[in-house]
């Protein structure tokens, strides 16, 4: 049906670790495919392969009988995952791609089917279901929401700016308990930790927060709030470079007081940092992705207009 497994063998493409056909991981892949297509406009082979991959995805099938909400995935042995992309998260990227599909589009109602949950932290009111900061970052790595508003007036780009500011304030509010958090050393998003991988963040506070800092929290927000993110990354590198800087840039996570440093490189964290940095530097990722005419047309059709 055109969907990709969450984990695949890099050499053969075969499914590994009994993973699911992942709707959101397929969406992130497709965003990269469309970006590559526009990045190399004179390469007919890339364009043909990109079109074949993108056009094969059967979005209505992943609705699994629901009139609008997509399933989070499908297992060969037990079918669709009951959980749905039913609230604000990285999911809007998936729904925009579905609306833009030339072969198997989603119904227009899908964009209105997911919940908009608002919260206020430190006087900042924003759309936020309590998920880690990366959920505010990943859709924006490709979709250029700047200057667009939804029919209800929601400015999704400004919302992610607010999410970044609220998250930094949240970390500073924890500084009494975790004095490693400072005005320029802050940020917690899903990452490795001393006890393994944790989908932590806030607000609200994830119970496992222990003072660990995740550079991708600031790194992924470079395109939203450079006045906060750039000083943070510079301070982290200056103060902790010997322990946290390597061939792929920052370590996935580190603890500024205990000296613990995550040993692995996680593509989901390095990736959002690179994409966000390039959008701040040049806007190229936004430009390349949005150059696919079906994307701005889909946003307009969904009511997210300039």
Q: What share of the residues does DSSP label as strand, in percent?
A: 5-15%
- The general outline is globular
Helical residue percent band: 40-55%
Unreliable parts = none
Number of helices: 12
- Main sheet characteristics: 3 strands, antiparallel
Q: Classify the secondary structure makeup into a structural class.
A: mainly alpha
Secondary-structure element sequence? Answer: EHHHEEHHEEHHEEHHEEHHH
Describe this structure in words.
This protein is mainly α and 306 residues long. The chain contains twelve helices and nine strands. It has helices at 23-39, 44-56, 59-62, 91-100, 110-113, 134-137, 156-173, 215-219, 226-244, 267-281, 284-290, 294-302, and strands at residues 21-22, 73-75, 79-80, 118-121, 124-127, 191-193, 196-198, 245-246, 249-250. The longest helix is centred in the last third of the chain and has 19 residues, at 226-244. It is globular, with a radius of gyration of 19 Å. The relative contact order is 0.12.
Summarize this structure as a short list of keywords or feature phrases.
two-stranded antiparallel ribbon, 306 residues, mainly alpha, three-stranded antiparallel sheet, 41% helix
Structure in a nutshell:
This protein has helices spanning 23-39, 44-56, 59-62, 91-100, 110-113, 134-137, 156-173, 215-219, 226-244, 267-281, 284-290, 294-302; strands at 21-22, 73-75, 79-80, 118-121, 124-127, 191-193, 196-198, 245-246, 249-250. By secondary structure, it is mostly helical.
């Amino acid at each position: 049906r055109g969907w990709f497994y969450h984990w695949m063998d890099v050499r053969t493409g075969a499914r590994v670790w009994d993973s699911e056909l992942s709707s959101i991981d397929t969406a992130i892949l497709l965003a990269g495919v469309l970006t590559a297509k526009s990045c190399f406009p004179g390469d007919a082979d890339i364009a043909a392969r990109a079109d074949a991959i993108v056009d094969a995805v059967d979005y209505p099938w992943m609705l699994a009988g629901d009139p609008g909400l997509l399933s989070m995935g499908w297992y060969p042995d037990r079918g669709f995952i009951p959980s749905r992309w039913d609230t604000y998260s990285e999911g809007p990227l998936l729904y925009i791609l579905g609306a833009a599909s030339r072969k198997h589009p989603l119904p227009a109602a899908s964009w209105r089917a997911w919940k908009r949950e608002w919260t206020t932290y430190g006087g900042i009111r924003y759309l936020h279901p309590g998920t880690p900061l990366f959920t505010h970052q990943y859709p924006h790595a490709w979709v250029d929401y700047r200057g667009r508003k939804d029919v209800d007036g929601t400015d999704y780009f400004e919302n992610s700016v607010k999410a970044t500011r609220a998250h930094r304030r949240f970390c500073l509010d924890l500084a009494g308990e975790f004095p490693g958090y400072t005005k320029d050393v802050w940020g917690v998003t899903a990452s490795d930790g001393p006890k393994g991988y944790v989908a932590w963040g806030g607000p609200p506070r994830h119970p496992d927060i222990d003072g660990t800092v995740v550079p991708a929290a600031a790194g992924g927000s470079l395109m939203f709030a450079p006045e906060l993110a750039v000083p943070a990354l510079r301070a982290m590198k200056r103060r902790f470079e010997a322990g946290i800087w390597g061939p792929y840039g920052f370590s996935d996570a580190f603890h500024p007081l205990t000296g613990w440093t995550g040993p692995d490189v996680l593509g989901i964290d390095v990736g959002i940092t690179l994409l966000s940095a390039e959008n701040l530097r040049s806007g190229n990722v936004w430009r390349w992705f949005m150059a696919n005419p079906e994307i701005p047309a889909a946003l307009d059709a969904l009511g997210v207009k300039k």
